[in-house]
Amino acid sequence: MALSHTINFILNHPLNKNQRVRAVWRFLRWQLQSRLGSGVTIARFGEKSKIIVKRGLDGATGNLYSGLHEFEDMAFLLHFLRSDDLFVDVGANVGSYTILASNECRTQTIAIEPIPQTYDILKQNIELNDVSTLVKVLTIGLGNEKGVLKFTTNLGAMNQVAKAYDIDTIDLPVERFDDHITLDTTTMVKIDVEGFEASVIEGMTKALENEHLKAMIIELNGYGKSFGFDENLIHQKLLDLHFEPCDYEPFSRTLIKLNRANTEKNTIYIRDLEFVSQRLKSARPFTIRGQKV
Questions:
Q1: CB-side exposure of 262: number of CA atoms within 13 Å?
Q2: To pair with 101 at 20 to 30 A between CA atoms, which of 183, 274, 276, 288?
Q3: Integer angstrom CA distances of residue 174 from 98, 136, 144, 178, 225
């Protein structure tokens, strides 16, 4: 994050509104530690979870600064998931969502992360939170067909499927979602693959038609154009399968229906709005940074 963006994020985050001085102190302390110390720390986030923080891991540092980096989406996950559900984390990165699902909600998780360096931190975070029995990690990429794709290796937590001009790359296996994952209980899927979402969705035809799939969090910010994808087609496909795009207001536990995908942040797609709304309302409260969510 750029400095001005980071400060703005910290000061305006809902979980920091009553403790802005403390939040800024956390930021300054980490900046000093990351430059003068080891450059690694363990941060608490969520209600009881821990995550490894290193320079360049924006999601992890966001959790350090705020308690929940992506507040609305992460709170939705906490309120929606139950212990007998399945959470599928496509593009798990270092595991923020995976840890919240399995450590806070005790949900079975399938975490999919192909990049070796990121996978190593993901595994460490799983062990740090003692959720190895709840998390299955697949070290593959997902797409619309089985094969091999080049991924970048020099972008840290932002590594992704490589473009023609990328130089530092690695060949990694890619599979179809439907060939590895069967949905037989209430399921939530998060897809964050830096613009490659359309290809992932093309490989999950059976899953999308499965009524157990009740919620999806997807980033449709226009970045798919760089891979030749029209993200409007993803949106329309989900509408045709009876998913509704929503924002989430965690404190009131309210879903706000949208007319289109949110291009500024992730979009939550809901199937069976009544079922999901009842789940959100009935979830236990989580105390994070002194606030009940």
A1: 19
A2: 274
A3: 20, 17, 9, 12, 20
Q: Rounded to the nearest 5 degrees, what angle is found at the Cα of 46, between the Cα atoms of 43 and 47?
A: 105
pTM more than 0.90:
yes
- Would you list the DSSP string of 175-222? E-GGGT----S-EEEEE--TT-HHHHHHT-HHHHH-TTEEEEEE--SS
Residues 6+ away with beta carbon under 8 Å from 130: 103
* Burial grade of 114 (CB within 10 A; 0-12, 13-18, 19 or more): buried
Q: How many CB atoms lie within 10 A of CB 281?
A: 11
- Token readout for 78 is 């906490």
Could you tell me the residue ranges of all domains in the chain?
70-292
> How does pLDDT run across 218-238, given as a tens digit for each residue?
988 777 777 778 888 999 999
Count CB atoms within 10 A of the CB of residue 139.
15
Rounded CA separation 81/83 (Å): 7
Residue whose pair of structure tokens reads 């799983």 in the numeric block? 126
Residues 103-111 have a mean pLDDT of: 98
Burial 220-230 (b: 16+ CB within 10 A, else e): bbebbeebebe
Query: How many Cβ atoms from other residues are within 10 Å of residue 16's Cβ?
Result: 22
Per-residue DSSP letter, 248: E
46 in the Ramachandran plot: left (φ > 0), alpha (ψ -120 to 50) or beta?
left
DSSP lists the bridge partners of residue 51 as 43
The three-class DSSP label of residue 167 is coil
- What's the pLDDT at 1? 55
- In terms of Cα–Cα distance, which of 185, 141, 150 is closest to 169? 150
